[in-house]
C-alpha cells in the first residue's frame, strides 16, 4: 500500500468530541484536537513523504525497528548502529530534511498552548508509520539539547494504546487509548517520562487505511 495514498474525500470521522484529559501533572491528551486541521495536514504530509520517504531504521543494538520513520524541520531524528542522533541532512539522500510545513508548525503550537506551554517553537517533526503489529518500546525522549520544551504527539489513522510511564523504565505505565485526531502533550516536570506504544491491532481506517501515522514535534536544538 502506498503510505501517501490518503483519501481526502473519505467520510469525516467523529470518534469523539474535543476535550482535554489530564494524565500527569503537566501532561494532557487533547481529544480530537487535530481533526479540524486534517484537510490541510494531508497534502503537507504527502509533500514531506515525497521528499523523505518512510524507511525502517536500525537501532544501535542492530535491530530493525517495526515502525517506519521520516522527518521534517531543521533537524531530523535518525538511528543506526552508531547511535541515536539528530541530523540536519537526511542520511539516505544526503540532502537537508524537508522544511516543516507551516500547518504542522501551527498545529504543534496550538496544541502546546492548549496544554499550557505557550511559545513552543518546534524545529523537528519525527513522522512514524505504524502498521498492525508495529510497536514502540518504552523510552525517554532525551536526544534533544534541552528539555525545556514539551513533546507534542499527534495520532492519525488506526487507534493505538499509548503507554505513559514514570521516570524509570520499571515504573508502572498508564494505558491511554488514542484515537484518530488525538494529541498528547507532555513537558515540564513530566518531560522525561518513559512512554511507548503497544502493538497496533488489525484494522482499517477510512482515510489512512491499515496504518497509524504519528507526528512527534520537538525542540531539538537550542
UniProtKB/TrEMBL annotation:
Record has Ligase as a keyword: no
Keywords per UniProt: Dioxygenase, Iron, Membrane, Metal-binding, Methyltransferase, Oxidoreductase, Transferase, Transmembrane, Transmembrane helix
Name of a matching Pfam family: 2OG-FeII_Oxy_2
Positions annotated to bind Fe cation: 139, 141, 195
Signal peptide annotation: none
Positions with a binding annotation for 2-oxoglutarate: 128-130, 212-218
Domain Fe2OG dioxygenase: 121-221
Residues reported to bind substrate: 77, 84-86, 143, 169
Cofactor note: Binds 1 Fe(2+) ion per subunit.
GO molecular function: broad specificity oxidative DNA demethylase activity; ferrous iron binding; methyltransferase activity; oxidative RNA demethylase activity
Cofactor(s) listed in the protein's UniProt record: Fe(2+)
Domain of life: Bacteria
GO CC aspect terms: cytoplasm
GO BP annotations listed: methylation; oxidative RNA demethylation
Transmembrane stretches, start-end: 147-168
PANTHER family: ALKYLATED DNA REPAIR PROTEIN ALKB-RELATED, NUCLEIC ACID DIOXYGENASE ALKBH1
Name of the protein: DNA oxidative demethylase AlkB
Amino acid at each position: 500500500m502506498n503510505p501517501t495514498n490518503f483519501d481526502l474525500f473519505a467520510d469525516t470521522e467523529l470518534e469523539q468530541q474535543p476535550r482535554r484529559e489530564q494524565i500527569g501533572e503537566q501532561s494532557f491528551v487533547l481529544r480530537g484536537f487535530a481533526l479540524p486541521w486534517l484537510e490541510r495536514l494531508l497534502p503537507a504530509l504527502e509533500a514531506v513523504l515525497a521528499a523523505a520517504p518512510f524507511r525502517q531504521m536500525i537501532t544501535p543494538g542492530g535491530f530493525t525497528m517495526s515502525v517506519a520513520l521520516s522527518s521534517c524541520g531543521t533537524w531530523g531524528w535518525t538511528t543506526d548502529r552508531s547511535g541515536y542522533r539528530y541530523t540536519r541532512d537526511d542520511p539516505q539522500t544526503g540532502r537537508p530534511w524537508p522544511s516543516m510545513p507551516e500547518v504542522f508548525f501551527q498545529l504543534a503550537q496550538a496544541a502546546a498552548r492548549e496544554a499550557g506551554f505557550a511559545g513552543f517553537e518546534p524545529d523537528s517533526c519525527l513522522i512514524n508509520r505504524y502498521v498492525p503489529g508495529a510497536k514502540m518500546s518504552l523510552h525517554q525522549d532525551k536526544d534533544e539539547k534541552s528539555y525545556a520544551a514539551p513533546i507534542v504527539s499527534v495520532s492519525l489513522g488506526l487507534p493505538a494504546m499509548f503507554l505513559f510511564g514514570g521516570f524509570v523504565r520499571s515504573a508502572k505505565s498508564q494505558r491511554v487509548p488514542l484515537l484518530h485526531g488525538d494529541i498528547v502533550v507532555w513537558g515540564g516536570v513530566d518531560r522525561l517520562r518513559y512512554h511507548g506504544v503497544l502493538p497496533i491491532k488489525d484494522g482499517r481506517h477510512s482515510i489512512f487505511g491499515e496504518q497509524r501515522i504519528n507526528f512527534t514535534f520537538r525542540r531539538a536544538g537550542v
